[in-house]
Amino acid sequence: xxxxxxxxxxxxxxxIALGCGNFGGIGSAPAFFGQGESREQAFALMDAARALGIxxxxxxxxxxxxxxxxxxGEWLRERGADGVVVTTKVFHSVEGDPADRGLAPExxxxxxxxxxxxxxxDCVDLYLTHEPDPATPLEQTLAVLAELRNAGKVGAIxxxxxxxxxxxxxxxxxxxxxxxxxxxxxxxxxEVEVLPLCERHGVAFTAFSPLAGGWLTGKYRRGEPxxxxxxxxxxxxxxxxxxxxxxxxxxxxxAAAARTRGVDPATLAFAWLLGDPRVTALIVGPRRPxxxxxxxxxxxVELSAADRDELASYFVASTT
Length: 320
Description:
Blueprint: E1 3-5, E2 12-14, E3 16-19, H1 39-51, E4 56-58, H2 67-79, E5 85-90, H3 105-119, E6 124-129, H4 138-150, E7 154-160, H5 164-171, E8 178-182, H6 194-201, E9 204-208, H7 231-234, H8 245-261, H9 265-274, E10 281-284, H10 293-298, H11 305-313, H12 316-319
Parallel strand pairs: 3-4, 3-10, 4-5, 5-6, 6-7, 7-8, 8-9, 9-10
Antiparallel strand pairs: 1-2
Helix pairs in contact: 1-2, 2-3, 3-4
């Protein structure tokens, strides 16, 4: 496993982070609370990740209606928390109450207290806003996050799902330690403004959805229904735009490039991201322990700048 410093902090994170969004649910959606991975399955995934040297776990207070944080906390107490870096996020309701959401200062303080209780920690290593809150002035949100960082309740603060304008505004108000946005060969919006800003200001960048909802694994086939239980079978909205001929043509070329290198498409997709020096870490969300292997294998795949440009060129028509 490889490790990187988290921006300008003294926190070291593994370049592969375990995404825990399916522990006890499917993300923050109340309709899926109680589904996803069971406690036993979550423990097996965390055990497998630690065996590979993965030290970073990424969650949010509302994932699984609080189950994700609670099970991580139980795992930390049973297995030992030494060396584990915990990232959690705030915005959505833990109870599924649509009126209880957002980034108002008092709500952030309350939500962090709940997260620390469920995790069994005195301080969370990285605390992120899950998405912008247009109902709360940004300066108020960032002031309370900086206050919590200064008080030692959180080690670092960051933003998730932000665009360049939002990040630039935040950077004028306080030090931002990390940005967590989607980034993959099929979603390269981060390259336009966010990654250059992160590089310029010494902000860590962690990429989620590195396989674009499973599209880059090759599991979705032209003219065939999506596999049962897959993202496209259960929550297709965010990736429905990819169901075009150009995407399938690009995936065919990408699969051929992976075969030439003796790896599977997922490994090559991870390697493409890891080859960008601006990317601090990837957040992977396996459903089974063996699905961690492509990410681990990607650490050994070396791609030149020309290799990365060639692979990216396959997907131009799919991302424009």
